[in-house]
# Entry
Amino acid sequence: MKKRILYNIVCAGVVMLSTTALVGCGDSFLEKEPNGGVISNEQMQELAVWNPYILLGQNYGITFKSLLQGTGGTTQHDDFGQKSVDLTTDILSGDIAMPANNYGWFRDAAQLLATKTTDNRAYMVWRYYYQIIKAANSVFDVIGGDESAPEDGENRIYYGQAKANRAYAYFNLITLHTKSYAIEKGNKALPIYRSQLTTENKGLSTVEEVFRFIIGDLEDAITCLKGYSRPISSGKEFKFEVNENVAKGILAYVYLTMGENAKAAQYAQDVINTEEFALLPKTELISNGFNNVNSQNWMWGIDLNKDNTMGLATFWGQMDLFTYSYAAAGDPKLIDDNLASELMAHEKDMRYYWFCDLDGSVFGEAGFYGYPINKFYDAGREPMGDRQWENDEVFMRVEEMYLIAAEGYARVGGEDLDAAKEIFTAFIEQRDGEVAAAVSDMSQDELLEAIYYNWRIEMWGEGKALLTMKRFQKTVTLGQSNKYHPNEQLSWDDERLTFTIPQRETSNNPLLEK
# Structure
């Protein structure tokens, strides 16, 4: 009964968000005035007085935008919120290879065309994140603004979670639309919107201004969410809610991207030290399947079920051979064969078995090697067997905190190099005992190279590859399994890897022109 009540609340939130956030294709997404028949912020304020579930539903609805099909404004099966962005960026980086593309989904990313101002993908990404921002701003407008947190009660939690969600959206937008914070911090980048109560168009803020805005939101979120415990229903924790550690995890990413490495390492270390989450042990690397929000290493994720799944328009509908999916029907997402060769060179790395049969033999046929058959899979393990699409989706894992802390301390160097080695060893000994034994003798550069490699392998398919590539300023050579650009060298600062503001937005708001 409790689960049904909560589901109804969430659905109410999604309906409210869809009525207040969706606009016609011909209009700028950032249009402020609601169209006829929608719930205004003034009406929301009145409703919230007599129905406390209104704000709860509004807040839950923000997160559920992260999995809904069409959040980017299309009916496409590669438009389903955060995980569709994750797949897009991993494909752009070259770490996910697409040897075939019979159905057309993610073709623009594989062709390195997704970031163009006229490409539909550029609009989908922009629209999705500004929907999250707009929804968060609606929460602030109902509560009383985004500059002063409620002193106590549930509204303080909603305020903190909305702050974290808005910050996460802006962080993704700014990293997708820039190459490097250090190089571009003075450049104009994005408009900052703080309220839905004004119809005024905004011009572009600088990269540095956007990052400082993000930091302010996350600091507020951490303060408001201190000590908050997420609910549990039907045996599953509500990990779709942001808590204090998730907000700290986002802030750790922000500081790492800015090059404020000591701060990044400290926030990541703080999360690790709480022991709320635990590394996925070596013994469970193959048996886990990355399909259950209750996994001890998941910090942030969402429980998919019959009430909220989008079917084929999900991560599982695009990735898993054991789900009725496009991957199983002939459009696989594979590990790039050059990256796979690096993995094979690490003979003791258990993650090799994520991409091959358990006897060590290569799975697949010529041109189609490298399926993630033992990383992401439905527990039934029947080819195309699952037709419910109810496996869960992960947004953040504690392994990311270990990698951030290790990288941050390693970049600081000096006395902090020992801290970096200690944290990295704790992580890598659950993946590759041979490398773990060698960490103590690594130089700073060798350790950073090892961390870079482990970002690519550990987080393969989870949307961190492009961010990592830019941060380490790397050039990769795309493998033979890449249908459109085999053997091509791709640099971190290639213009094709940086998103541009979509043309339909600049047409409606000339202030967005750079």
